[in-house]
Amino acid sequence: KVERLESQLSAKDREIATITRTEAKAKAGFKAQIDKLQQERDEFQRMVIGNQQVRTQQIHEMKKKEKEYIKLQVF
């Protein structure tokens, strides 16, 4: 009976080791996926900021040209 219990204990130890390795692999995969998604998010955020800056510059240029146009109409 003791040998059977020791055998079962050994089998459970192997099962725990297998599950622990599987869990570690899954965690590593999730970490890599999270890192990739964060990099993509950062890239999109930089693009949004860049687009906002371009838009702000275009609005500024448009207002400047409108003022010049108004000045030309006065004369």
TrEMBL record:
<protein>
    <recommendedName>
        <fullName>Microtubule-associated protein</fullName>
    </recommendedName>
</protein>
<comment type="similarity">
    <text>Belongs to the ADIP family.</text>
</comment>
<keyword id="KW-0175">Coiled coil</keyword>
<dbReference type="Pfam" id="PF11559">
    <property type="entry name" value="ADIP"/>
</dbReference>
<dbReference type="InterPro" id="IPR021622">
    <property type="entry name" value="Afadin/alpha-actinin-bd"/>
</dbReference>
<feature type="coiled-coil region">
    <location>
        <begin position="2"/>
        <end position="47"/>
    </location>
</feature>
